[in-house]
Amino acid sequence: MNQVDLSRKLVNWLWKTAAVYLLYVLVTGIIWPVIRPTPEKIDVQPEFVETSEKVALLEYGIEGFGARMDIIDEAEETIDVAYFYMKEGESVDLFYAYILAAANRGVKVRYILDGVFHGVRGEDRDVMHAFNEHPNIEFKLHEPISSVFYAPWRINNRLHDKLLLVDNKYSVSGGRNISDLYYERTSSDMAYSFDRDIFMMKTEADETGIIDQMGDYYNELFNSDYAVDQTNWSTFDWSGDKADQKMAELEGVYLDYKKEREDREPLTSIETWEAKAVDIDQGYYVHNELSRGFKQPFVWSHLLTLASQAEEHLYVQSPWIVPNSQMRADIEATDFQASEGLMLTNGMSTGNNKGGQAGTENRKSVFIDSFLDYYEYQPKESTLHTKTWVFDKQISAIGSFNLDARSSYLSTESMVILDSEALAEQLLAEAEESYLEKSVQVYADDSESNGEKTKGQNPTWQTRAMMPILRSFAWLLEDLL
After folding, report:
1. CA separation for the pair 386, 376 (Å, rounded)
2. Highest mean pLDDT: which of 66-80, 173-187, 251-265?
3. What are the tens digits of pLDDT across the range 86-131?
4. Rounded to whole angstroms, how far apart are CA atoms 208 and 216?
5. Which of 131, 169, 449, 454 is least enclosed, having the fewest CB within 10 Å?
């Protein structure tokens, strides 16, 4: 056999192998999850615990970032970190720098990111070298992409929590990842994501409360079979001096930023959030089970149960709303007592998740035709990423859960459920003052009315042209959105 024939056979073999592998990925990672039925809603009862803990609403990006930096700087013993992704930018560099500074002063850090969408690319891999080398930092990836290559079904088991815990005393949780997109808007035409977090603090050190429940979940997540230790030699491009170089760079970032804060009066401190915090009467922490494949929908079940118990008013805010057939059946079977409320989501001109927006266009009639007033946020230069429910203007749920099948059955998700009239009042006031005025209300007859600060926004022609195609794909893949 001559060399040309050998090369041709090799190429043919490679093509066949690639085709078989792609079929394997398609069947196990997409087709099988789509054709399988998703689990029904679980019968659950809210498990409220009385607490003296306090909560502060972090509605604006600068607050969300400041609170994170302040509690990390306050850490004396432990820091636990869990995020979906870290997207390069100044906020990411500062977050890394603060974590490293805490570890340098002896704080024990546990750090876990989603294994596929973590955003640790390019030069940011050197940060992982530094973390892996540091004796006080334990770093893991949840279902790392290396394991997805040989087990494609793992692509659907994503870590979607956004959680920061310090000393079993302070927490910041909600919808924000670590990225400039969420924290500071430097110009009016800059892409910006409005989001929401909450700061929580213990007032009695020996009390077992909601922050303890968050810590228990973090232990379960970090010690699960899906949380994989990383090594510099097996996971990232590696040369021995990268860790030292990156450590020195981040230490410089931290010192420069601290000096800058000393030269001007700091905008925030831990006292800022303590002073802003309001009382919590009772509450609890709810999360999805940790498993591969379809999870039992604990978060969805709790939210739907609380919604059914609301006697007068229901408020729901989600970036997109894509209830699959089982979720729609759950909604249909729920006996809602409330007679009024509203739902706020992104309009087609706003949403930066085109798949989620296409799914929303397919299913929004479920809510437009309900007792809820349906609003679509309009500004093109920004998007809503908030995940919030308020029941009877008294009980609030804030966290990472989107109203879609992926959050219900596939991803790790968590929500803090808080009985605090003061917090609920703040949330509803923010909705009215910051978002509804820039939104369009859509009615069952397809008519619309504009908020005071919007004339309605038409999506780009590219979006209008692509949406019919995207809606077809969204209908087919609804269980994965």
Report:
1. 13
2. 66-80
3. 987 889 999 999 999 999 999 999 999 999 988 777 767 888 888 8
4. 11
5. 449
Dig out the tokens for 413 from the structure: 């998700």
CA distance 76 to 81: 15
Cα 63 to Cα 275: distance, rounded to the nearest angstrom = 14
Domain containing 407: what range? 280-480
Q: Above 60 in pLDDT, residue 239?
A: no
Per-residue model confidence (pLDDT) at position 408: 98
CB 343 within 8 A of CB 373: yes
Residue 163 lies in a domain: yes
CATH number at residue 464: 3.30.870.10
Q: Is 253 helix (H, G, I), strand (E, B) or coil?
A: helix
Under DSSP, the state recorded for 60 is S
Query: Is position 44 within any domain?
Result: no
If asked whether residues 265 and 286 sit together in one domain, one would say no
- Tokens 């590696």 belong to residue: 238
Residue ranges of E strands in 309-444: 313-317, 321-322, 340-346, 373-377, 382-384, 388-391, 395-399, 403-404, 414-419, 439-442
242 and 306 assigned to the same domain:
no
154 with 231, same domain: the answer is yes
Of 335, 478, 458, 296, whose CA–CA distance to 403 is shortest?
Answer: 478
Number of domains comprising the chain? 3
Specify the pTM. Answer: 0.94
